[in-house]
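Lab meeting prep.
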Amino acid sequence: MAEENTRVSGKYAHLPYRMGVGMMLVNDKKQIFVARRIDTKAEAWQMPQGGIDGNETPEQAAMRELAEETGTDKAKIIKSGTDWFSYDLPDHLAARLWRGRYRGQKQKWFLMQFLGEDSDINLATPHPEFDRWKWASPDQLAELIVPFKRELYLAILAEFKDYFL
């Protein structure tokens, strides 16, 4: 299902994908953590995600990225996605993100249980990416996300749907 969720991004279609991870962090009410990006004027909400460094495993990268973006590592991996998911950036973003070297990202997604309290989440990290966060229901998720990631997020919800039943 993962590779079918992409769309070719015009003049950047020849570029490779950046390898990364994504984390669907859920609380005990089965709500999903989303945060608003600080680097755009749009209402761009997303789940935590990021690149895989050096010799990291996807699991190691997921835990590191979660801590870097949310200020907490109080979570455990419940389930790993069965496949890698990818998305293409719109051309105007592909030109400036990652120095124009990638067309988008290919990611391993993880369903993670949040083990802390809301007060453990601190977006004031050394390199903040978000200025606000909230818990969202699965039904709200696709509407909060920037349009170019909507299809990806619907596929991730489908991947982890058994958790929400």
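Slide two material, second protein:
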Amino acid sequence: MVLHIHGKGKQDRYVPLPQSTLKLLRTFWRTHRSPLWLFPAPTRHGLAHSLAHDGGPVTRSSLQSAFRAALKRSAIAKRAHVHTLRHSYATHLLEAGFNLRVIQDHLGHRSPRTTAIYTHLTREVRAAVTAPLNQLMRDL
């Protein structure tokens, strides 16, 4: 139940895969059945130009186009890019109470300082600090 991520600069890592996500990925995989890539790049073959999925990993431009289309369909007004998903992932893990070291490992960072840039302090995170701090200081 882990996903192998081929990271930039040969920084491969494994991250946990939720059961519900596995079901969605299996359904998606049935559309292309690539033996190597979960998200293969479509390629054109033959005279009929039928789309096949055996050309390697999906390209950066295809991913960006798909993200822009999804963002438009979502009606989210904020500016966002594909890389925004990494920041959101890290922030949601932090909000869920994950240790910063675990988040660092999931993102493939060598330095906790880099991870700190990715994890944005939201109102929920700030509010979550108040109760434990009051508990710690209640006997003073």
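Talking points for slide two:
The CA atoms of residues 95 and 128 lie 8 Å apart.
The two ends are 46 Å apart (CA to CA).
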